[in-house]
UniProtKB/TrEMBL annotation:
<dbReference type="GO" id="GO:0003700">
    <property type="term" value="F:DNA-binding transcription factor activity"/>
</dbReference>
<keyword id="KW-0805">Transcription regulation</keyword>
<keyword id="KW-0678">Repressor</keyword>
<feature type="region of interest" description="Disordered">
    <location>
        <begin position="1"/>
        <end position="37"/>
    </location>
</feature>
<dbReference type="InterPro" id="IPR009061">
    <property type="entry name" value="DNA-bd_dom_put_sf"/>
</dbReference>
<dbReference type="GO" id="GO:0003677">
    <property type="term" value="F:DNA binding"/>
</dbReference>
<feature type="compositionally biased region" description="Basic and acidic residues">
    <location>
        <begin position="20"/>
        <end position="32"/>
    </location>
</feature>
<dbReference type="Pfam" id="PF13411">
    <property type="entry name" value="MerR_1"/>
</dbReference>
<keyword id="KW-0238">DNA-binding</keyword>
<dbReference type="InterPro" id="IPR000551">
    <property type="entry name" value="MerR-type_HTH_dom"/>
</dbReference>
<feature type="domain" description="HTH merR-type">
    <location>
        <begin position="24"/>
        <end position="93"/>
    </location>
</feature>
<dbReference type="InterPro" id="IPR047057">
    <property type="entry name" value="MerR_fam"/>
</dbReference>
<keyword id="KW-0804">Transcription</keyword>
<protein>
    <submittedName>
        <fullName>MerR family transcriptional regulator</fullName>
    </submittedName>
</protein>
Length: 339
């Protein structure tokens, strides 16, 4: 009895991985190695065709080391402001060139030395890992003598430094797990250390604390950082920390001190009857109310991490409004000064 002829093999669709090929990763592992959400990886592939991974016989996408490196490059460029749609199809050499140009152009520009101030930029680095990640980029920056890296072991040690009156231009914190309590501590330390810019690197975290920090203007990185990400982190910290004049009135965390205390305001307000103008009275009342609301916002921020970002923003806006009204009051007083 003749055996039935073997059925014809199904023609494979698309490139397939052979046994001799290099080790490859499934989508979840590839996303983890590139430090990006799997949903982002799937969206980039579906919408922009950023990579074309091989497929197994079962149709499973399998990613090479080269695929992962490309994803890391694309993510770094998107973080710098490039639209994914405009760079998705570029070859690796061009992506690396874009990243190098951006690093060389942006990183040195705002530093204190280049601005002619001669001022040292002070960076508080909380955690041994982030201190290691920053050491090489700082050393290679060409301006290491104008950078003071303050190494701190923990957020508690940062609090002790704040109690001693320490102040920094930039704060970066490395934590294993980003929780609500950690997010609250980071925001508190940013304020107490008077940091113009803050960043957090973390290995694990859920949506709530990350969104709280993002809304509050804190820059987020997934740990461990690659060499490219370490250079970008150093550039971000230096840029934010050294921008003294340009962003002093806008950047989160940089608040203006009061020009008039309550006693001085009361004295100024009493001059309304003398100068026959009620502007000093009205401006003084507004300044007092704004100062009270700023302090109220600070208290709310410290009570609940859920509202921390919102109340930090309200406090910043109120602080700047109060500073503007104080400037207006000084102009009014100057206009009515006795000749």
């Amino acid at each position: 009895m003749k055996k039935k002829a073997a059925s014809a093999a199904v023609e494979p669709r698309g490139p397939q991985v052979q046994e001799s090929d290099e080790h490859r990763y499934r989508s979840g592992e590839a996303a983890r190695r590139a430090k990006m959400p799997p949903t982002t990886l799937r969206m980039w592939e579906r919408r922009y065709d950023v990579i074309s991974p091989m497929k197994s016989e079962a149709g499973q996408r399998l990613y090479s080391e080269e695929d992962v490196r490309r994803l890391v490059l694309l993510k770094a460029l998107v973080r710098q402001g490039h639209a994914i749609g405009s760079i998705a199809r570029l070859p690796r050499e061009q992506l690396e060139s874009l990243l190098q140009v951006r690093t060389e152009t942006v990183a040195p520009a705002p530093r204190a030395k280049d601005a002619g101030t001669g001022r040292v930029v002070r960076i508080a680095a909380v955690g041994a890992a982030v201190q290691r990640w920053l050491a090489l980029p700082v050393a290679q920056s060409g301006h290491a003598e104008h950078i003071d890296l303050l190494g701190l072991a923990s957020l508690s040690e940062a609090g002790a430094a704040a109690d001693r009156g320490e102040a920094v231009d930039a704060l970066v914190v490395d934590v294993l797990a980003l929780t609500r309590d950690v997010a609250a501590q980071v925001l508190e330390m940013r304020g107490r250390l008077r940091a113009r810019v803050a960043a957090v690197s973390y290995a694990f975290g859920n949506a709530e604390p990350t969104e709280t920090l993002r809304l509050a203007g804190v820059r987020l990185y997934r740990a461990p950082l690659t060499a490219v990400e370490s250079r970008q982190l150093a550039a971000d910290l230096l840029a934010g920390g050294a921008a003294l004049e340009a962003v002093s009135a806008e950047v989160i965390g940089a608040r203006m001190p009061r020009r008039f205390d309550d006693v001085e305001l009361e004295r100024v307000m009493s001059r309304s009857a003398i100068v026959q103008c009620e502007c000093p009275q009205h401006l003084g009342e507004l300044i007092m109310r704004l100062d009270a609301f700023e302090r109220y916002s600070n208290d709310c921020m410290s009570r609940s991490v859920d509202d921390a970002a919102l109340h930090r923003h309200l406090g910043d806006v109120t602080n700047h409004a109060r500073a503007m009204l104080e400037s207006a009051l000084m102009r009014v007083l100057g206009a009515h000064a006795p000749e």
